[in-house]
Amino acid sequence: MTVPDSVVSAAWLADRQREAAENGEAGPVVLDATALLPSPEFDGDYRLESGRARWSAAHIPGSRHVDLVGEFSDHSAPRHFTHLDPTALTEAVRRVGVVEGRDVVLYDDGGGIWAARLWWSLRAIGMPAAVLDGGLAAWQSAGSPIESGDEVAGADTVDSAHSSASSTSPHPRQLPVQPPHPLTLQPPLPQAWADIDEVAAISEGRAPGTLVCALGREQFDGSAPTRYSRRGHIPGSLNLPARSLVTPSTGLLATDAQLRESVRPLLDVPGPVVVYCGGGISAALLALGLVRAGREDVRIYDGSLEEWTADRERPVFASGS
Question: Strand locations in the chain, DSSP E?
Fold first, then answer.
């Protein structure tokens, strides 16, 4: 797999698709990771929905929807969005069309957090992939074609019968979804995920490391409603909202120079850097930014505040409630 970086532009992806079509080859595997999790209107307001319907309404030609709410989460766990074990995740990505030798590009229609979550999960098992900078909005802004419609149930290829894109637009040739077969993976990322005991040890000063909450300031200080059990943050945490790494006017990630400036307070703190949010989603976008800025000892606390606040023995600090 030859994706050049952890983030690629809409122009890069369009060029790769065009080249593949001209050469009669398969283009990159493009996966839409959109899910829906609206901001809470009151404490305990948790509304979670698959983004498949949104993908069906408009998506990059040839893309498939990855259901982070469904088959890409471990439903045997007591909380949402728990990452799959490496074997289950490898099997899941095969089912959505990842095959040996093809680049993998991830995007969403939700500001990059969902694509970043999938990117981190794949990175953890040693599977190279890149996030499409700006997601679907950037793709559309570049004038690239859009399709609509679902895959045909039981079909081997992406259904294009309901495509709304021009028939003259270059589309990558679709390969059949392959039966289970080995994928050549890089070495897995050691300690990609932190658990509640490690987080507690860092919070209490019993273990080295720095905790960083990727939620917005109002969620961090407890002045806004939470979808979880209690408002606030894990004691001892710093705050760097993941959304601050995205340029509001364009929806694109900050430039490398801007990114380094934004995360500069975290580049020299004691490691490991353990990032969390409500459920390990926004934290993934912050993790992406930290890795791009050169910080490698980053972990995501997958349980995040959903797990932490559910345990009444775990302290939560809220200064603005």
Answer: 7-8, 29-32, 35-36, 49-50, 64-65, 104-107, 130-132, 193-194, 210-213, 238-239, 273-276, 298-301
Helix, strand, coil shares of the chain, percent, nearest 5, are 30, 15, 60
310 vs 196, 200, 216, 219, 283, CA distance in Å? 12, 14, 20, 16, 19
Under a CB-based contact definition with an 8 Å cutoff, are residues 272 and 299 in contact?
Answer: yes
The span from the CA of 167 to the CA of 91, in Å, is 33
According to DSSP H, which parts of 24-103 are helical? 52-57, 86-95
* Tens digits of residue pLDDT in 279-306: 999 999 999 999 999 999 999 999 999 9
Domains of the chain and any CATH numbers: 7-141 (3.40.250.10), 193-310 (3.40.250.10)
Contact indicator for 133, 247 with CB cutoff of 8 Å = no
Q: What is the DSSP string of 201-238?
A: HHHTTSS--EEEE-S-HHHHHT-S--SSSS-SB-TT-E
Name which of 52-56, 162-166, 291-295 the model is least confident about: 162-166
Reduced to 3 states (helix: H, G, I; strand: E, B; else coil), residue 276 is strand
> What predicted TM-score, i.e. pTM, was given to this entire model?
0.89
- Residue recorded with tokens 């957090």: 113
| Residue type at position 303 | G
- Quote the CA–CA distance of 156 and 187 in Å, as a whole number: 30
Q: Name the β-bridge partners of 36.
A: 49
Question: What is the pLDDT averaged over residues 259-271?
Answer: 93
- In single-letter form, the type of residue at position 97 comes to G
Say what the alpha-carbon torsion angle 291, 297, 302, 303 is, to the nearest 10 degrees.
Answer: -130
